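Justification of computing resources. Each target in the renewal requires a structure prediction run like the one illustrated here; the chain below, 82 residues long, is used simply to show the kind of job we budget for.
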Amino acid sequence: KEQKVTLDRAFEFAIEDQLLFRRITGRRVHPGSGRTYHVEFAKPKVNGKDDVTGEPLVQRSDDTEEALTKRLVTYHSQTAPV
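Resulting structure tokens:
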């Protein structure tokens, strides 16, 4: 449903790139359920395996170092100056 709301404020969260790399590249997901884990902050019981099914966890293609690097280059060159 479309809402006609005027926005007059925005928030910017200033987070160091290195923290973003640590948080984003460490995410893992169980494709069948969408359950998420993190290699450092929310580890599965067995490394690389879903806690419920035991199936392999995957790293999403947009959570890789390469993808994040591209996103941050775009952010710093196009969004941050605004």
